[in-house]
Amino acid sequence: MPKAYWIARVDVRDAERYKDYVSTAKPAFERYGARFVIRGGDYEVMEGSGRSRNVVIEFPDMEHARACYASPEYQAAKAIRREVSQADLIIIEGYEA
Question: What whole-number distance in Å separates Cα of residue 69 and Cα of residue 63?
Fold first, then answer.
């Protein structure tokens, strides 16, 4: 079964309050086996537009990735994130060769 990923691109308007999002989301990520592959860091936009923060989170499979997003813990965190940032987020299935 292939792994699944959240790919998020975020522009943070309030960095201090964004920390509340991160701490509120942590229990959901732990519960569903999330592993951060990319969490911020330097980047270079080669085509299209970019956002100030890029994140890739790995999950064991699509079921875990979707369940994490739908969980009450993450929904509480999402409410904070929406107040303090603008984001694009997709859930995508990984590729197994």
Answer: 10
Convert the pLDDT of each residue in 19-37 to its tens digit.
Answer: 999 999 999 999 999 999 9
CATH of 4-93, one of 3.30.70.100, 3.30.429.10, 3.40.50.1110, 3.40.50.2300: 3.30.70.100
**Please, what's the largest Cα pairwise distance for the chain?**
41
Report strand pairing: 85-93 vs 4-12.
antiparallel
Question: By percentage, how much of the chain surpasses pLDDT 90?
Answer: 96
Task: Please tell me whether the overall predicted TM-score, pTM, comes out greater than 0.85 for this model.
Answer: yes
Closest by CA position to 11, among listed 96, 88, 65:
88
Burial class (CB in 10 A: 0-12, 13-18, 19+), 45: exposed
